[in-house]
Every structure is written in structure tokens, then in C-alpha cells.
Specification:
8 strands, NagB/RpiA_transferase-like, two-stranded antiparallel ribbon, single chain, EC 6.3.3.2, alpha/beta, metal-binding, 199 residues, magnesium
Amino acid sequence: MAQVAIHEAKKALRRELKKRIAGMSDDVKLKESASIVNKLLGMEEYKSSKRISVYLSMPSEVQTEGILKDIFKTKRDCFIPRYIGPNMDMVKLNSMEDTMSLPVTAWNIKQPSEQDEREEAISTGGLDLIIVPGLGFTKGGLRLGRGKGYYDTYIMKCIEKCEKKPLLIGLAFSSQLCNELPVTERDMKLDHVISFEPD
């Protein structure tokens, strides 16, 4: 599949997935989020990770507040994405209170301001685990992001600078699961995708 065709296929699928997610009620999103987060918290790989990166969830994403609370409760290091122009880094979050006081960007996500000097994960030893957001996922670990390539670029940088690949885990609502996804070699494959399985 040529690059242009893949690009077009991704664009069409992003629209379709956004529609699917928008069709979920808030109650269903909360119910699925709670189930997915519980599964993650029970994973040995999660329990043994000391330095963890988590995205601060938007309403259209699996809610990550429960993960943040668990990281702070178990006294581990928590890092969150900060987007500045075309770059993303992972900066340290100190507490749940710290989250509440973060400014909101034009994209309506909370992140520390550019002037806010914080520890960056790669410069202090890398990450054990990255919870990777996305619009679509396959059970086998393929992911469709929002099209900016922030995470793929950051993960490559992690591998180059820290000489170890962090464990990559995606969290997926039932409506975000796909049988297959158009991907290129630049798209990083995830180690696990935790999704909501109806009983």
C-alpha cells in the first residue's frame, strides 16, 4: 500500500473512530474506563514499573485518573506529556494536587507551561512504561494515533538515548478496537492493548 493510500486510509478511519467514540454515552465510557484501568493495575509489568508515563485523559479517551492516583499512592514516578510546537516531552508530575493546578492548552488538555521547569524523563534515566493514547487499536498492538506522530517520535528518542525500549501499553474502549489498521514502519507497535471486553 503506497504512502499516500495509507495516509488517506488513516484519515478516513480517524473520522470513523471519532464518530464511534462520540456515540458512546458518558456512563459507558466511565464503566469501560474503570474496567480497563483495573486490568492495568493488576498487571505484573505495571506493578514492577517504577517510572511511568500517563496521558491526562480527554473526555473521548479511556479515563486515566485512577492510574495517576495509583502511581502516587505506590510512590512511583509519574510523567505526563507536554506538547510544545512539533515536539513532545515527558515531564514529571508531583501529585494529584499538581494535576489540578496545571494550565489548560488550546487543545483543552492540561499540561505544565513552557516556562515551568520540570524533570524530563529521558534526561533522568528514561521510562519503564508508557501508557500510549490513540484513536484505534488492534488486539495485536497496532495503533492509530491522531496523526501528529508525537508518541512514535518520542518512543524512538527514548530507545536511542536510554538504550532501552519502554513497555508500551494502549488503553482501548470497545468502540476503538479494529481488526486491522493501516500502518507504516514508523508506527510503533504496542506490547499490550487493554480493552473493555463485555461480559
